[in-house]
Write a structure and sequence with these properties.
The chain has eight helices and no strands. The chain is globular. The longest helix has 29 residues. The chain is mainly alpha-helical. Helix 4 crosses helix 7. The C terminus is likely disordered.
Length: about 170
């Protein structure tokens, strides 16, 4: 009688949930506090804005369509990805599609990890690392174009500098 539901529930959950649950609960509660504060229209520093943006993404992944249960391993992958900031550069409008891509990619490329999660086994550090890499690759196509353009611009600027140097050397020899 005297045991709380959260203590009893915490002892029965899968180890992978326990591994990500604490950090996720903490970051989401911080988000809720900041969100209330932000409603007053105050200027927010960059860290606070990042907390708000990540919290919005956590809220988005917690929304689950009715009568469409998600397998435990996919839930773990998505919660892990959002908690690790993998979705931070994804717009809220693209979150559902990015989440679907993470689920599909994880099932295809990490089936061994998914099987261990479903069996209630604990994951090792290398499993979490592999999961992180797979999730990051899965959402690459959802990142804003300007981020990709920034990388391309840097490459182009380097090439342009080399061309100019080559052009300058050729013109001075003539």
């Amino acid at each position: 009688m005297g045991k709380s539901v959260s203590r009893v529930g915490g002892k029965t959950q899968l180890p992978a949930y326990s591994d990500i649950g604490g950090d996720l609960r903490l970051s989401y509660s911080q988000f809720e506090e900041v969100e209330v504060f932000a409603r007053f229209g105050t200027q927010l520093d960059e860290d606070t804005q990042q907390t708000l943006e990540r919290g919005r993404r956590v809220r988005q992944v917690l929304k689950q369509p009715e009568a469409q249960p998600m397998p435990v391993s996919q839930q773990i992958a998505v919660l892990f990805a959002v908690n690790e900031g993998i979705f931070d550069d994804i717009s809220l409008e693209q979150m559902d599609a990015a989440q679907q891509e993470v689920c599909q990619t994880v099932m295809e490329q990490c089936s061994d990890i998914c099987d261990r999660i479903e069996a209630g086994e604990s994951l090792e550090d290398q499993d979490w690392d592999k999961l992180r890499q797979v999730c990051e690759k899965a959402v690459d196509s959802f990142k804003p174009e300007e981020e990709n353009q920034g990388e391309n611009q840097q490459e182009n600027q380097g090439e342009n500098r080399e061309e100019k140097r080559g052009g300058d050397t050729g013109s001075s020899e003539s």
